Amino acid sequence: MGFSKAIITSGPTREWIDPVRYISNASSGKMGFHIAEEIGRWIPEVIYIHGQVLEDYRCPSGSKRISVETTSEMKDAVLSEMMGDTILIMAAAPADFRPAESKESKIKKEDGSEILLLELVKNPDILKAVSSEISEREISGCCLVGFAAETDFLEEHALGKLKSKNLDYIVGNYVGKNEKGFGEVETSIVIYSSRGKVAEIGPLSKEAISKKIVEFLKTDTSNAFVRS
Ligand code: PMT
């Protein structure tokens, strides 16, 4: 299978509560950045769609860069870049929820109340939206790769996401506990394919892991890969 385009998403998204506060997470953009750098050796056109990543992870060499802020913006950017023969790798950590209302003025804390209730609404799921779009529009030759960031039960949750998001591959990794997952850490991952293949990689630096993820995808998709 030959892909003509790769889309890599990276980093966290931000959902504003008021002009000075937002909901986000600790993703640095490191994993997505190294995947984008590595995949450029295999696929000619690389699109790097990123949220608020650290400065070092903003500009992978050889990629076209699109900066977004919210999960909805990331979804729109990904959908507008999807075409036939594209591999999408979602290493980003998009915020799953956003405030039902983003206040125009800073929320004041001087009203004597000890509690602030925040109503959140669910954000769109980018991978599910892409998966529906490619089947509705009959876009062929695409491959969807998700990441599953888990604090527990990696295999169970990763396989659940592989199925519910209708993906070809999911890369499971532990986050949150014992400084795992986010930022400048060595990490271990497990890649699960929709055809039942499993590959365990690490612990290694994210740079080394990214190389191995790209090598795995290159080899595994070269054998008459067709999206199931
Ligand atoms: O950036 P680093 O500091 O290097 O950290 C890397 C990482 C831990 C962020 C990365 O390895 C990782 O696991 N990224 C996925 C984080 C995540 O959001 O996982 P999730 O299990 O909530 O989501 C599953 C998949 O759905 C992911 O591919 C995610 O990008 C995607 N998603 C999530 C929410 C959403 N609204 N739409 C999505 O498509």
TrEMBL record:
Transmembrane feature ranges: none
Domain DNA/pantothenate metabolism flavoprotein C-terminal: residue ranges: 5-217
Pfam families, sorted: DFP
InterPro entries: CoaB-like_sf (IPR035929), DNA/pantothenate-metab_flavo_C (IPR007085)
Entry GO MF terms: catalytic activity
Record GO biological process: coenzyme A biosynthetic process
Domain of life: Bacteria
Protein name as it appears in the record: DNA/pantothenate metabolism flavoprotein
